[in-house]
Automatic annotation (TrEMBL):
Identification of the protein by name: Aldo/keto reductase
Domain called NADP-dependent oxidoreductase: residue spans: 39-271
Gene3D superfamilies, per the entry: NADP-dependent oxidoreductase domain (3.20.20.100)
CDD domains: AKR_AKR3F1-like
PROSITE patterns: ALDOKETO_REDUCTASE_2
Keyword annotations from UniProtKB, A to Z: Coiled coil
Keyword GTP-binding: no
Coiled coil, from the record: 90-117
Record lineage: Archaea, Candidatus Marsarchaeota, Candidatus Marsarchaeota group 1
Highest taxon, organism lineage: Archaea
Gene Ontology MF term list: oxidoreductase activity
Length: 275
């Protein structure tokens, strides 16, 4: 596994991480107490850790924090980079603090490495939320502050609201099939040293069926998914977080590191899947 510096934090995290959003039916079922294939998902996260993946992303709304807790049990805490997210209806100070404490209980942790605002909420001043975030850093309950699904304008406003700490990351949909963030967010993050967590990096499996990826997978003796992830890894400060639900797929994702697509093939993919 390759490791890269996570933005300006100085932290070295796995170039490919693990996401733990499964699907709406999982969330509904887990909320009602039915956790479909939970053991397989825990096994998948453990498989990723065994492969050197130390970046694990979850969220309060995913209902997967307890799975992460079981998967990381027995692993040295400082060897992991655990990220979770607060839902948009918990961005008032009191609610945010309560939401984090609940996440920590479900994760069975004393702190998380990265706490992210899952979606912005126009009804809550971002200054209030960021002020509460900074207090949580001071208390040692979170180490770094992140956002998710923010426009560039919203992200800049969040940054301007921070008084003591810097914004560590943003999390956005990013793949060969969805390159919208290249218009403004990605260049801004590159300039400011902000890490980008890329969710849906495999576009729900759609990319694996495209002729160009199939062609390149034969050339490199890699799977289309590995080609897709390696393309993302060529982007500075981008950390794809494909879903960890199957141990075999997680090991496949881990093997997208340790090699590189040629400049010629990177340009070919850029042309085949234009922004």
């Amino acid at each position: 596994m390759e490791y890269k510096q996570f933005g300006k934090t100085g932290e070295r995290v796995s170039a490919v991480g693990m996401g733990t959003y499964y699907d709406p039916l999982w969330i509904i079922g887990a909320t009602l107490g039915f956790k479909r294939k939970a053991d397989l998902k825990i096994e998948a996260i453990r498989a990723g850790i065994e492969e050197g993946m130390n970046l694990i992303d979850t969220a309060e709304i995913y209902r997967s924090e307890p799975l992460v807790a079981k998967a990381i049990k027995g692993i040295k805490r400082d060897e992991l980079f655990i990220a979770t997210k607060v839902w948009s209806n918990h961005l008032r100070k009191e609610k945010l603090v309560k939401a984090l404490n609940n996440s920590l209980k479900r994760l069975e942790l004393n702190y998380v490495d990265l706490y992210q605002i899952h979606f912005p909420n126009s009804r809550v001043p971002i200054s209030e939320t960021m002020g509460a975030m900074e207090e949580l850093v001071d208390q040692g309950k979170i180490r770094y502050i992140g956002v998710s699904n923010f426009t560039l304008e919203q992200m800049v406003e969040a940054i301007s609201s921070l008084k003591k700490y810097e914004l560590a990351s943003t999390q956005m949909s990013y793949s060969l099939a969805d390159r919208r963030i290249e218009r403004d967010i990605l260049p801004y993050c590159k300039k400011e040293g902000i890490a980008v967590l890329a969710y849906y990096p495999l576009a729900h499996g759609k990319l694996s069926k495209t002729d160009k990826l199939i062609e390149l997978s034969k050339k490199y003796n890699k799977t289309p998914a590995q080609i897709s992830l390696n393309w993302l890894l060529s982007r500075e400060n981008v950390f794809p977080i494909p879903r960890a639900s199957n141990p075999q797929h997680v090991r496949e994702n881990a093997a997208s590191t340790g090699w590189t697509l040629s400049e010629e093939d990177l340009k070919l993919l850029d042309a085949t899947f234009p922004p």
